[in-house]
Write a structure and sequence with these properties.
heterodimer, A: 214 residues, mainly alpha, two-stranded parallel sheet, globular, B: alpha+beta, Cyclin A, domain 1, SH3 type barrels, five-stranded antiparallel sheet, 5 strands, 32% helix
C-alpha cells in the first residue's frame, strides 16, 4: 500500500465505527447537491457502476490478445489506435485520443503522468493508487530502470527505455511482448495472461504469473 | 505554476507500493466524489483544465498529505463556490440556502452513459498551421507561468526532437483560466534522457513529452 492509503486505513482503524471525515463531508455534499437539483443520484450510481463493474483492464487485455493473434489488427492498432480499439467496442472518456506503444526485445515503453493521473480509462479502467502517487510520478522519468527494478523487472543494458509522460490529452497503452510458449493459446487464454502492469509498461507478460481476474 | 504537483524528477517520495487485488475505490465516498465531479462538470461552468488547476492550487504541504480523492473534494468545492453553483455556507452546513430555486440536474442517467461511452474530445477540427515539422530539432521554452500549464519543469529549456504531430488541441494554459481555447498543434517531443538528467541516464533512453506549439521554440 502507498503511504497515503495506509494512512487512510490507519485513520479508519483508530475510529472503528465512526466514518472518516471525507466520508461524512462527501455524504453531506451529495445530499446538498441533490437538494439543490444539481445532481441526479441515479446518474452518480451509473457512473460509479461503469468504472467499478464494467470498464477495467480486461478491456485492454482483450485488445492486446487480439493484436497478438491477428497481425493485421496489430498494424491497425499501432497506426490508428482509436479506430482499432473502437473495433473491439471500447472507447470514450479519457480515451478519446489513444496511442499504442509496442514493446519489443530492443525497446521498452513505460507510461506515466508526472503532473496528475492521466490514464487510458476505456482500456485500463481507473488508475491504481501507485500510478497516481508521488513515488511513481516523481521517479518514472528520472530513473525508469530503477522503477522497473522495484516492480521486479531488470532490463538488459542494451534495451532502449522510452518513457511517455502523458502531459496532454493523448492516452497511452503499451502493447507488451507476447511471451514464448503461448503459440497454441486461444485469444481468450492470451487475454487472461495480460496484466494491467504490463499495459502500463512496469512489467512483462509471463506465462507463469496469473493475469487479471476475470 | 511551479507547484508540487509537477513532481517529475523529484527525490525523496519513498518506495512505490503496489496493492494486490486493489479495489477501484477503497471507500464508498471515493466513488461518490468521482461521480459528483463528472456530474457537476456537466453544468459547463468550468472545464477539464480548470478542474486540474483547482487541485494544483491546494497548498503543497496539504497536497502531499491528502489522499487522491480528498484532493478531488477540495478542488470541486473551490470550483463550485467560484462559479456560484453553491456557497461555502451551504457546503459547510450541507443544507441549501433558504429560498434557493431547485435546478434540474444537468447530467441524467442517459447523458452519463453517453459521457462514458463517447468522452469529451479535446481535439479541434480547425485549420491551424503547425509551427514545427516531424524530425525538427526544438527547444522547450524556459517559462514559468504562475497559472496552469502542462509544460513540466524538468523539460523547460531542454532540447528535443519532434517525433509526431498529434493534430490540433485546446491549449490548457488559456482554457484553464477561461480566456479561450487557443487551439494549436500538439507534438510528441523526444528528449534524450541524458539531455534531461545528465550522465547518470543510459545513453539510449529517452522521455517523450506531449507539447503544444506555444511551449516550443526552434533550436
Amino acid at each position: 500500500m502507498t503511504p497515503e492509503v495506509s494512512q487512510a486505513h490507519q485513520h479508519e482503524h483508530d475510529h472503528q465505527a465512526v466514518p472518516s471525515e471525507p466520508a461524512l463531508r462527501v455524504k453531506a455534499l451529495e445530499s446538498l447537491l441533490i437538494e439543490k437539483g444539481l445532481v441526479d443520484r441515479a446518474a452518480l450510481d451509473a457512473l460509479v457502476d461503469a468504472y467499478e463493474n464494467k470498464i477495467g483492464p480486461r478491456n485492454g487485455a482483450r485488445v492486446v490478445a487480439r493484436a497478438w493473434s491477428d497481425p493485421a489488427y496489430k498494424q491497425r492498432l499501432l497506426s490508428d489506435a482509436d479506430a482499432a480499439i473502437a473495433e473491439m467496442g471500447y472507447g470514450g472518456l479519457q480515451g478519446e485520443h489513444m496511442v499504442v506503444l509496442e514493446n519489443t526485445v530492443k525497446v521498452h515503453n513505460l507510461v506515466v503522468c508526472t503532473l496528475c493521473s492521466c490514464y487510458p480509462w476505456p482500456v485500463l479502467g481507473l488508475p491504481p493508487v501507485w500510478y497516481k502517487s508521488a513515488p511513481y510520478r516523481s521517479r518514472a522519468v528520472i530513473d525508469p530502470r530503477g522503477v522497473l527494478r522495484e516492480f521486479g523487472l531488470e532490463l538488459p543494458q542494451d534495451v532502449e527505455v522510452r518513457v511517455w509522460d502523458s502531459t496532454a490529452e493523448l492516452r497511452y497503452l503499451v502493447l507488451p511482448e507476447r511471451p514464448a510458449g503461448t503459440e497454441k493459446m486461444t485469444e481468450e487464454q492470451l487475454a487472461a495472461l495480460v496484466t494491467r502492469e504490463a499495459m502500463v509498461g512496469v512489467a512483462k507478460v509471463s506465462v507463469s504469473k496469473a493475469g487479471i481476474a476475470a | 505554476m511551479n507547484g508540487v504537483h509537477d513532481m517529475g524528477g523529484m527525490h525523496g517520495m519513498g518506495p512505490i507500493l503496489e496493492e494486490k487485488n486493489e479495489p477501484v475505490f477503497h471507500q464508498e465516498w471515493e466513488g461518490r466524489i468521482f461521480a459528483i465531479n463528472r456530474a457537476m462538470g456537466a453544468w459547463r461552468k468550468w472545464n477539464l483544465d480548470a478542474s486540474r488547476h483547482s487541485r494544483e492550487l491546494i497548498p503543497p504541504a496539504e497536497y502531499l498529505r491528502m489522499s487522491y480523492y480528498a484532493r478531488w473534494v477540495a478542488g470541486l468545492v473551490d470550483l463550485m463556490v467560484q462559479s456560484g453553483l453553491a456557497t461555502r455556507a451551504e457546503i459547510e452546513s450541507g443544507v441549501a440556502a433558504a429560498g434557493s430555486i431547485k435546478a434540474v440536474p444537468a447530467l441524467t442517467v442517459d447523458k452519463a452513459v453517453t459521457l462514458v461511452a463517447k468522452g469529451v474530445p479535446a481535439s479541434r477540427n480547425v485549420n491551424v498551421a503547425a509551427r514545427f515539422q516531424v524530425g525538427q530539432r526544438v527547444r522547450a521554452r524556459n517559462i514559468h507561468p504562475v497559472g496552469h500549464t502542462r509544460l513540466p519543469r524538468y523539460a523547460r529549456g531542454k532540447f528535443g526532437t519532434i517525433e509526431r504531430d498529434h493534430g490540433v488541441f485546446v491549449f490548457p494554459d488559456t482554457n484553464a483560466h477561461f480566456v479561450g481555447e487557443k487551439p494549436q498543434h500538439v507534438y510528441s517531443v523526444r528528449f534524450a534522457a541524458r539531455e534531461l538528467w545528465g550522465e547518470q541516464a543510459a545513453p539510449q533512453d529517452s522521455v517523450y513529452v506531449d507539447m503544444w506549439d506555444d511551449y516550443l521554440e526552434p533550436a
